[in-house]
Amino acid sequence: SAMPADAMGGMDADMMEAMPPHAVQGMDADMMSAMPADAMGGMDAPMMANMPADAMGGMDADMMSAMPADAMGGMDADMMEAMPADAMGGMDADMMEACPCGAMQGMDADMMSAMPADAMGGMDAPMMANMPPEGMQGMTADMMEAMPADAMGGMDASMMLATPADAMSGMDADMMSAMPADAMGGMDADMMSAMPADAMGGMDADMMSAMPADAMGGMDAGMMSSMPADAMGGMDADMMSACPADAMGGMDAGMMANMPAGAMGGMDQPMMEAMPADAMGGMDADMMSAMPADAMGGMDAGMMASMPAGAMGGMDQPMMEAMPAD
Fold first, then answer.
1. What CA–CA distance (Å, rounded) separates 101 from 227?
2. Spatial separation of the C-alpha atoms in residues 88 and 201, rounded to whole Å
3. Predicted TM-score (pTM) of this structure
4. Which of 84, 210, 217, 241 could form a disulfide with 189 if both were Cys (CB 3.0 to 4.6 A apart)?
5. What is the Cα–Cα distance from 248 to 315, expressed in whole angstroms?
6. pLDDT tens digits for range 147-167
């Protein structure tokens, strides 16, 4: 007859290590849960690969932390999915790094949130690309901060959309620049406002154009001033109009010069009033003619003095009439 589950209570690491890999095919969750945590120190990748998925239901955090990192090389998605969420509390960066990419398909939000932040240091782009979007719901700022920048290369829009807004506070410029442009399609205003200003230094025009317009509602002047000038090439009028007026305080002439003329169609008087005078040095006639007339109500003498002469070629009577006399 089969071995009683509680007999596994006498197992130790040396016994586990001496066992042929295929022997663990007879394991089940009850046997796993009866085993002393330190017995897992004898586990290796071939044994793990032979273990029935449902046996992982008996794992806990202590057993996970006792397991050699390279044993995770035998993990697959079914085994990951069968594991109790709190068992992930025993993960570390070395174990994560040894885990096959496909195993990440078994992750969910509860498992992610149970994982120590520093375990994310073992994540890479293929592993990230294999993670279900719902797994990202368990992400925190500390986990984001611990993740290698290039791991963000596996992000997509659905994963971004599932990420809690406050997790974005762990982002930096290197992570941003490693992210595929279309992943920005999952960004919203709350996520944007939670992001550190300097993270915007990794933004480019393709990422900007992929972002929903209303995500710009989370921008502020510090974020705007951190953004590379050429990223403004992805702006359009809807994005401009969604941008808080005071965010325009971070604009400069180089950013203005890179902005498509049509984007100026989203400008209004409060935005114009918030803009530094020297930013107007990037204006041209096409941008001027695309701007709503009433936006000119925010102009002042300093802004006018900074504007290239040729930009005045885009002026018309309603714009002139809306402009303050001084």
1. 33
2. 33
3. 0.84
4. 217
5. 21
6. 999 999 999 999 999 999 999
Q: Rounded CA gap, 254 and 97, in Å?
A: 42
Cβ(121)–Cβ(146) below 8 Å: yes
pLDDT at 103 over 60: yes
* Contact criterion met (CB below 8 Å) for 92 and 68: no
Residue type at 128? M
212 and 236 Cβ atoms separated by less than 8 Å: no
Of 125, 117, 183, the residue nearest 152 (C-alpha): 125
